[in-house]
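haha ok so turns out i had the wrong file open the whole time. this is the CORRECT one, sorry everyone. sequence first:
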Amino acid sequence: MNDRELEARMRDAFDAVELPDTVRQRTFETLDDLAAGQSAGKPELSVVTSDTGRGRAARKARRSRLITALAACLVVGVAVFGIFRVGGTTNAPVETAPGEQGVVAPMDMVATAFVDIDINPSIELQLNASDQVVAVDAMNDDGHSVITSLELEGLPYDEALAKLTQSEALAPYLDRDAYVQVSVASDNRQQEQTLMSMSERQLATLPCRGSCDAVSLELHEEAHAHGMGCGRYIAAVELSTLDPDITVEDCHDMSMREIRDRIDACHGGASSGAYGAGAMQGGGYGGHHGESRGRHHA
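then structure:
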């Protein structure tokens, strides 16, 4: 087999590798440049020799160099293709300038804030520093049935919350008697206030009542250790304190409306005015949109 046949076979083998046209073309151009460089740097000898052993060795050396060059090109092509594929599989949005080919930047997946939404479904949204949803979790069966039909990851928080509260899956839980408790936990106070403002604007569009509180990350972890969202856990602790016959665990399957009604009953049928994050620290809590803004429970 001569060098041309060997090169043709290597090119045929390379053709079998599924690569983007741009990667394939750049690789072949590199191959041509290498071949041209070898030809220019090591011209064929015109001296005739009777030493057939040396002739074979020379041909073998040239063939070895050609194989090495082709193999190097193949490795480079596949490596470039791998990088291309990794970049192309991200779900992050592509930011491009007009007329330029965009570079896909992976979304920051580090959660810096946590928002619990308790109605009867209990749902948690985890957000990165840019207020994008990086993960969605359900803390009860109703919550799971709601989120399975929704795609919220990657959305800005305000869009995700609007999509959630306006969804057909959540609609049965948002009648006029329902109560929605939103709890925001973050070490970043500015992000915390931003998320609370977004939450209150969305709560104001609902037919039922609801409130938003800021809670500490420690309380968030404690609530989730009990398998509850923060709003449900806070109300459950208050109810179990008022009624020793009811445990925190008993509140797992109660809606927020039911827990509130039982707390009211413990206060003689009148609204206690002490629901939500403020209740566990003895503060008043009116239960209307925006009344808990800025309140923080440690």
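The chain has a mean pLDDT of 76.
again sry for the mixup
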